[in-house]
Amino acid sequence: MTRRTLGILGALTAAAVLLAGCRTGGDLSFGRKNCTVVDVATSPEKLALLTELAAEFNEDEIDGKCVDVKVTRKASGGGAQLLADGWPDPEANGPQPVIWTPAASSWGAVVNQRLADKGQPPVVPSDAKSFMLTPLVIAMPRPMATALGWPNTAIGYSDLLALANDPQGWAAKGHPEWGAFKLGKTNPNFSTSALSATIAQYYAATGKVRDLSLEDVNNPQVEAAQRGVESAVVHYGDTTLTFLNNLYRADSRGVGLTYVSAVAVEEKSVIDYNTGNPDGILDPGEKPRPPRTPLVAIYPKEGTLFSDNPLFVLDAPWVSAEERKAAQAFSTFVQKPENQRKVLTFGFRPGNPAVPLGAPVNAANGVDPAQPQTTLGLPSPAVLVRLVEKWGELRKGARVLLVIDVSGSMGDDAGNGESKLDLAKRAAIIALDQFKADDLVGLRVFSTQISRQAPQDYVDLVPIAPISQNRERLIRQIDSLVPTNGTPLYTAAGASFDDMKKGFDASRINAVLLLTDGQNEDPNNEDLDGLIRKLRSGSEGAAGGASTVRLFTIAYGQDSDLPVLKRIAEASSGASYDAKDPTTINQVFTAVVSNF
Amino acid sequence: MVGGALFIRSRLDQRTEDKANPPDLVCATELAVICERIANETDVNVTLEPAGQTVSRAVALNGAENIDGWLTAAPWPAILDQRRQARSLPAMFTTQTPPVLARSPIVMAVWPDRAAALRQACPLQQPGWKCLGEVAGKDLWKNVPGGREIWGPVKIALSDPEQQALGGIAFTAGAIEFFNRSDLSTIDFEDDAFRDWVSNLKAATPVTSSPDMTAVLARGESATDVFVGLEADIAPAIEESRRQPKPVVLYPSAVVNFDLTLAVIPGRAGERLQEVVQEAVKDQLADMGWKVPGTPAGVLPDPGVLDALRQVWKEAAG
Question: Are A247 and A260 in contact (CB under 8 A)?
Answer without folding.
Answer: yes
